[in-house]
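Why do we care about 3D structure at all? Because function follows from shape, and shape follows, mostly, from sequence. That is the central idea of this module. The next example makes it concrete: a single protein chain, its amino acid sequence, and then its structure expressed as tokens.
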Amino acid sequence: MYEELKKAVYDANMELHKHKLVIYSWGNVSGIDRSAGVVAIKPSGVTYDELAIDKIVIVGLDGNIVEGPLKPSSDTPTHLELYRCFTGIGAICHTHAPAATTWSQSCREIPCFGTTHADHFFGPVPVTETMTDDQIRNNYELNTGKVIVRRFARLDPVQMPAVLVANHGPFTWGRTPAEAVEAMVVLEQVAAMALGTIIINPAQGPVSKLLLNKHYFRKHGKDAYYGQRPADKQ
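And the structure:
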């Protein structure tokens, strides 16, 4: 019944493996079918070498298993909270990719130092607050989602499809599982370049607002002109 959604989520998970952003079982991608009210997600603790389409788990928005023999990812409550609060997204990706996780563990946002960053993320990639002892002890994964949502109180998750969870790691999202993974691949590159930038020049400041706007909006929004329009491809 959910084969198309499961295949899209499986393919996206394997794309993470292809880009070497995950090792062992360290990561997960999910996708949502909002009309059916279900989410497909990688099973908990299953390595990428063992992953198959029929192992992808289908859960309801209440977290209960709808289809599949395995337990869903332990991060499922985080994903579900984001789906509930970010209604414009269709998929979520989480990894422990080295460069982005280094920034997360440092509890620092990633400044927008250049146009590569500005092409994809409208401003610095935000970092959440550090979770409290109570948040960690009780409903930890759900509270991870809640601290992300709180961080986005004044941010648009469409313009900023990424976040760093303090002391933990990155989450990205998009309209499709493939888009969520693309955002993670780009985030890892941007994180590595930002780290190199501050090593070479610790005093380097962010790009100007004008340059940020130019590069972001030439690729996004109604006046975007980067790439080919459907009519141009014919």
